[in-house]
Amino acid sequence: MGKKVLFFGDVGIDDTIALIYAHLTDKIDVIGIVADYGNVPRVETTRNVRYILQRMGRTDVRVFGGAARPMTGEVPTFYPEVHGPFGLGPIKPGLEPKELENFFEVINLIEQYKNELIIVNTGRLTSLATLFILYKDLMKNVQSYYIMGGAFLYPGNVTPVAEANFYSDPVAANIVTRYAKNVSIFPLNVTQNAIVTPEMVHYIHFKGKTQLVKPLLDYYYYQFYQKKVPGIQGSPVHDALTLMAVDRDDLFTYYKSAVGIDTTDVARGQSIGDFRLTDTPDLFDGRPQHRIAIGLNYEGFYREFMTVMTGEPF
């Protein structure tokens, strides 16, 4: 079996691509999913997770109900224009609400897979931050953290400086970056380059290992991005890239820095690292150093993604 992953996500289109990728590779074993608010309300996220697991024949995976709103106390803003009214583009899961496992049952998983468990967080960081507030010592048992979020020295996708996951709950993002150790962060400046072209989608669909990629990417996600980013050649799979890094660390170039998240008005959600090359004082109040992905080997990404999604070597 592959590396043990507890997945936190606001499961929309790119989270779904990530979960399909994990299902089709033997290098990653998703043992639990925390369904959070984010792309859509939590009730839709939980439906999406159950639908995806049914389609993959993995109803054995434990699903936990995560956060419904941010630590700021605000009413969440959702993005149906990006992920569709239900979070899966043109797909309507059509499942009745179902009681999920208590969120705090994730503690048992962390204890069961002590020093082996990897946490991958591709959505808002509210649920993960909650664990650090209540169980800081327990979280030291987690082997490592892979987080999709931020935009370092790069334009944001919600404001000129902020990416959606950090912007939507900057309080939670600050808690995680302050207390978590062995963290790898995958910001927009890298994930935006993980492009899946329509030609790639067509071939994946033709090979038939999954029939979900084409409706999610070609029929919805790519159309949004063509309007949002003129000239873009396909759909960036932010979350799949972050999950891929669990086993394919070699695809990335990293920079190490402590990280802070701005919580003020205009700069809210801005991710700040120290990229200066001179010897400077510590401006981060003793925060731990994190790995920030700053470069992607696209050819390596292409080969890995297509090999896993089609079942044939590239």
TrEMBL record:
<dbReference type="InterPro" id="IPR023186">
    <property type="entry name" value="IUNH"/>
</dbReference>
<dbReference type="GO" id="GO:0016798">
    <property type="term" value="F:hydrolase activity, acting on glycosyl bonds"/>
</dbReference>
<protein>
    <submittedName>
        <fullName>Nucleoside hydrolase</fullName>
        <ecNumber>3.2.2.-</ecNumber>
    </submittedName>
</protein>
<keyword id="KW-0326">Glycosidase</keyword>
<dbReference type="Pfam" id="PF01156">
    <property type="entry name" value="IU_nuc_hydro"/>
</dbReference>
<feature type="domain" description="Inosine/uridine-preferring nucleoside hydrolase">
    <location>
        <begin position="6"/>
        <end position="302"/>
    </location>
</feature>
<dbReference type="InterPro" id="IPR036452">
    <property type="entry name" value="Ribo_hydro-like"/>
</dbReference>
<keyword id="KW-0378">Hydrolase</keyword>
<dbReference type="InterPro" id="IPR001910">
    <property type="entry name" value="Inosine/uridine_hydrolase_dom"/>
</dbReference>
